[in-house]
Amino acid sequence: MNWGKGITLALIAFMSFIIYMAVVLISKSTDLVTPEYYKDEVQFEKEITAQQNAMNNQSKLDLDLSPEGLFIKLDTPDDVKLLDITLYRPNTKDGDIILESKGKNAFIEGSQLKKGRYLLTAEWEAQNQSYQMRDTLWIP
């Protein structure tokens, strides 16, 4: 085989690979994180302020995972009347868990949790200020 045939075969193989990758990537669905992505983006500054408030307040989020479920404890000096907890599952639409808890503690049963990664968001209000903490949770 000479140089011309080798280069031609290499170009054909490369072009076939690029066309295959284009077809595979176009066929994948690319859902947005939320249906109202751009509207939620405007609220991002409020989230940053709430996260900064939680850091300044020296709040901590303690997660205790057991076979029975997930125990969430918010360690903050403020009096918390309502704690909103969201477990967002990035790879499926149906796996999200939204929970409202009265007080600083919450429990999610193990049967509700599926294996994989969750993005946990805890939000509360105290002294006319909003607070937010985020964490990543892995369920084995």
Task: Provide a compact summary of the structure.
Helices cover 31% and strands 37% of the residues.
Which tags fit this structure?
alpha+beta, three-stranded antiparallel sheet, four-stranded antiparallel sheet, 140 residues
Can you put this structure into words, describing what you see?
The chain has helices spanning 3-27, 37-42, 44-56, and strands spanning 60-66, 69-75, 83-88, 97-101, 105-109, 116-126, 129-139. By secondary structure, the protein is of the alpha+beta class. The chain has a 4-stranded antiparallel β-sheet. It has a 3-stranded antiparallel β-sheet with strand order 1-2-5, with no helix packed on it. The protein is elongated, with a radius of gyration of 23 Å. The model has no long low-confidence stretch (mean pLDDT 88).
Describe the SSE topology.
Elements: H1 3-27, H2 37-42, H3 44-56, E1 60-66, E2 69-75, E3 83-88, E4 97-101, E5 105-109, E6 116-126, E7 129-139
Antiparallel strand pairs: 1-2, 2-5, 3-4, 3-6, 6-7
Kindly provide the radius of gyration, computed on alpha-carbon positions and rounded to a whole number of angstroms.
Answer: 23 Å
Tell me the major beta sheet: 4 strands, antiparallel
* Contiguous runs where pLDDT drops below 50 for at least 5 residues: none
What is the arithmetic mean of pLDDT? 88
Q: How much helical structure, as a percent, in the residues?
A: 25-40%
Going across the biggest sheet, name each strand in turn. Answer: 4-3-6-7
Find the count of extended strands (DSSP E, 2+ residues).
7
Strand fraction equals 35-45%
State the shape: elongated
N-to-C order of helices and strands: HHHEEEEEEE
